[in-house]
Design goal:
It is built from ten helices and 13 strands. The protein has helices spanning about 50-60, 80-85, 100-110, 120-125, 140-150, 170-185, 200-205, 220-225, 270-285, 300-325; strands spanning about 5-15, 25-35, 40-45, 65-70, 85-90, 160-165, 190-195, 205-210, 215-220, 230-235, 255-260, 265-270, 290-295. A six-stranded mixed sheet has the order 5-6-7-3-8-9, with helices on both faces. A hairpin with a 7-residue loop joins strand 1 and strand 2 (about 25-35). The radius of gyration is 24 Å and the shape is elongated.
């Protein structure tokens, strides 16, 4: 964590939709993590993984079915009056009146916010100054997200919650938002972000957690999560050569491979050793490795593999439960 101070502290958090009967749905199933002051922590997961459900509990918008949440040392629901003035919340949909103009909306929200920024400053921060007289219902989806962000930043929050902040933004708008979030973090703001854009998490997050079916399947720094996944080397076998003519794959640190026609794909936890060994072999044999592609693992690959592994483990557990019940 960026700081030893735990600004957000979540322990065994649970959320259940329904009345507690067997038909109830447990959306959050024992989530535990913490976020230090000045840190940006990203929650990732497929649709329905529990990202927004978790975020709403931490924001104090709903009561947990179990577990414990502390934001700035306080229960965000039971001690809302001590937490709310110090946080900013950007929901997936702000739901503001469509007939108000952008400036009127900010002014209305500022009236409910302690120490609010001036309207012009708030609009300038998110690039909406030229749209101040436009009615909210006439804004594009991306402009509405900018307005949501402006309102979340009105009170200069110590802790900022961003739920899918760049949905609907074009590439330029997304980059502008990233720069704004980086600036806020550099100024000491703690940020908890949910996003389905893996590039966004890779660009911004100090640490992240990947949720699957309400549980954390992986957590750590971005490089740690990515490094836990294998790298890849692929190439086309030279004419007249077969996989058996290559150096022993285990000596190259290759953990698995597959062949499709003449194309060979290798997976390895020792990318430099594998690539160097292959290139030295090709040089000594006097051949060219066509369609050579050497790449480290990406967050996207890590995300997909973790989700797949977690899904497989869940299916296996379910099968064992059925066997025991039988």
């Amino acid at each position: 964590m960026t700081s030893n101070e735990r600004v957000i502290d979540v322990t065994d958090l649970r959320r259940v939709y329904g009345d507690g009967t067997r038909a109830s749905f447990e959306a959050v199933r024992g989530v535990t993590f913490s976020v230090g002051r000045g840190e940006l922590f990203a929650l990732l997961g497929t649709n329905g993984a529990g990202k927004t459900s978790t975020l709403e509990l931490i924001e104090g918008l709903a009561a947990p079915a179990g577990g414990r949440v502390r934001v700035l040392g306080h229960d965000p629901r039971a001690e809302r009056d001590r937490v709310r003035p110090r946080i900013g919340v950007m929901l997936q949909d702000g739901g503001f009146p469509g007939e108000l103009t952008v400036a009127e909306t900010v002014r209305m929200w500022a009236g409910c916010t302690s120490g609010a920024r001036q309207v012009d400053e708030a609009l300038e921060t998110v690039g909406l100054s030229r749209r101040r007289k436009v009615r909210v219902k006439q804004l594009s989806g991306g402009e509405k997200r900018r307005l949501d962000l402006a309102l979340a930043l009105l009170g200069r929050p110590e802790v900022l919650f961003l739920d899918e902040p760049t949905t609907g933004l074009d590439a330029e708008g997304r980059r502008d938002t990233w720069e704004l979030v980086r600036r806020l973090r550099a100024e000491g703001t703690t940020v908890l972000l949910t996003t389905h854009y893996l590039e966004e998490a890779e660009e911004l997050a100090d640490r992240l957690a990947i949720l699957h079916e309400g549980r954390i399947a992986a957590e750590g720094r971005v490089d740690e999560v990515v490094a836990a996944q294998p790298s890849h080397v692929s190439f086309e076998l030279p004419d007249g050569y077969f996989v058996g003519d290559l150096p022993p794959l285990d000596s190259l640190g290759v953990t698995a491979h597959d062949v499709e026609g003449r194309l060979v794909r290798l997976r390895t936890d020792a990318l430099q050793r594998a690539a160097t060994g292959l290139l030295v072999w090709a040089r000594d044999e006097g051949v060219e490795l066509r369609r050579l592609d050497v790449r480290g693992a990406s967050l996207e690959e890590a995300f997909l593999r973790i989700a797949q592994d977690a899904k497989g483990a869940g299916a296996e557990s379910g099968a064992r439960t059925k066997e025991m019940a039988a």
